[in-house]
Design goal:
Helix content is 45%, strand content 15%. It is α/β, with parallel strands linked by helices and 261 residues long. Helix 4 runs parallel beside helix 5 (127-135) and helix 8 (179-186) packs across helix 11 (229-245).
Amino acid sequence: ALSGFFADQRGIRWVPDVYETPAQYRLNQSKTYHQLTSRGLECVLAQANRVVHSFHPTTPFQYGSDRKFLTNGSPVSRIDPIYRTEEPLQMVWVGSPRLDRGGEILVRALASISAEYDVHIYGETDQGVVDLASDLDVDDLLTFHGWVDHEEALDAIRAATIGYAVLPPRTDWRYAPAIKIGEYLAGGTIPLVSAFPGSRYVAAEAGQYVDPRWDSVATDLTEIAALSVTARRDRMEAARKRGEEIPWEQIRTRFAEAVVR
């Protein structure tokens, strides 16, 4: 952004790509210097002639005088789905597994249902998630893999039936979809996501949409487990089909077009 700012001072056109609003920095950490720097970054972005936004066009976080909106893509060329439907069903959660980012919702949901799920979690896990799972006696359902190579995470996605991406209703999360949703689609994995505009922007009809509450997640997990093998595979194939509609290669082309037009 600073490079673009200085380019602008020299009359050079610059087009920033905003994947998530800079406001996320102050929303993530309410008592840090980001309270000041994130607002400064937003002021710089506002000076750009054209800004490409990779989130839902109804977001309150919009920058520049000429605004373009693109959905996130799906890495379909990197994942060959296997459509695994055997029980116990596998669920994968790739990203930032923390209590305040859907962890508490997931653990409480698992503790309230009789359906069996084998849950694999990738990323630096909040200790609070581990402790709550132990307290609610569902720690045997969860396997914490920590940080792994990206390819290993993609292999886990293709082996799962459900991909978890339920986030609380924070303003930026409502409109900026998690990048893992595109990966779940590519892997033929049913995305279990919050019923937010950003999630719908990516997953469309292939998503399993829930209110970001543990009881809502519990209901949908029970419903998916009750599906026939054929119906479950149909949902997984629909996820892959949606991923093929928004491949990264296509999105990159559209981004280039948005920059030059």
